[in-house]
Design goal:
Number of helices: 0
Structural class: mainly beta
Mean pLDDT: 94
Strand content: over 45%
Radius of gyration: 15 Å
Largest sheet: 6 strands, antiparallel
Low-confidence stretches: none
């Protein structure tokens, strides 16, 4: 039988911090960062979003730079890593990109990514990478990156319950 997946901690995985008030910038959302100040991306408490974990969901506007979360986990030889994110079309969104990366002295180096169609209610999206295919990643910190790649600036992808596992 294959080994059971082991959960890797993702800080603020369900966007519950800093609390229930709407945050319109990643600078105020613990664990999450962005390369530029967001026009309107961050986290928001309860609404019609039907969160999959807790009372808050993240949201990311097309045209805003990606949001990322550098984990404390250091990649090990033999890891097979999977990123799973629940996402939905919050407003006019059609495509959502999720990625795992490793940190190389402050540079995000992609390990695996996927662009997915988002429609309607929450769906689970995932990508997997076998570190045997990217041996230079061993010994580096692992990270998660998300981006709304819809070609309509006034569109938002809602997201929740960001999780990473290894086998």
């Amino acid at each position: 039988y294959p080994p059971e997946p082991v959960s890797i901690p993702v800080e603020n995985f369900s966007f519950e911090l800093p609390g229930g008030d709407k945050q319109t910038s990643w600078e105020t959302v613990p664990g999450w960062s962005s390369d530029t100040v967001a026009t309107d991306s961050g986290c928001e408490a309860e609404g019609n979003w039907k969160q999959t974990d807790g009372n808050v969901n993240g949201y990311i506007r097309a045209g805003d730079s990606s949001a990322y979360n550098l984990l404390t986990y250091v990649i090990e030889e033999g890891d097979v890593l999977t990123l799973m994110i629940d996402a939905f079309d919050e407003w006019q969104a059609t495509q959502f990109k999720i990625s795992l990366y490793y940190d190389d002295a402050g540079t995000r180096v992609p390990l695996v990514s996927g662009v997915f169609d988002v429609t309607g209610d929450y769906q689970e999206f995932s990508v997997t990478v076998d570190i045997a295919d990217v041996p230079e990643a061993v010994g580096h910190q692992l990270g998660v990156e998300v981006e709304n790649v819809t070609p309509i600036d006034d569109s938002w992808v809602g997201m929740d319950n960001v999780r990473v596992t290894k086998i």
